[in-house]
Specification:
- The chain has one domain.
- The mean pLDDT is 96.
- It is flat and about 50 Å long.
- Helix content is 81%, strand content 0%.
Length: 108
Amino acid sequence: MAWLYLIAAGLLEIGWPVGLKISQTPGRLMVGVIIAIACMSASGGLLWLAQRTIPIGTAYAIWTGIGAVGTFAVGITFYGDSAGAMRLVSVGLIVAGIIGLKLAHGVG
């Protein structure tokens, strides 16, 4: 169950930078801020639950990795961010790190 909490926390981690981006749209300041605060709170709560059984370093790295990769994808898909080869390779390394941490969990 802890891994489900961690994945959900990472997905919610995407919501707060998106909320901050939305808040930059004229007339949408409060909507964006509310989205950001709600996602931060829910994400943090789920991370707390996950850390009851997943080591803090593993949980935190995976949580931030999911958030970073997800926000990267949202930026490309919805905000016209660059999808250059070097950026894609770099985010691929983050994904490889997330997978490596999951595979290494409990090995050592």
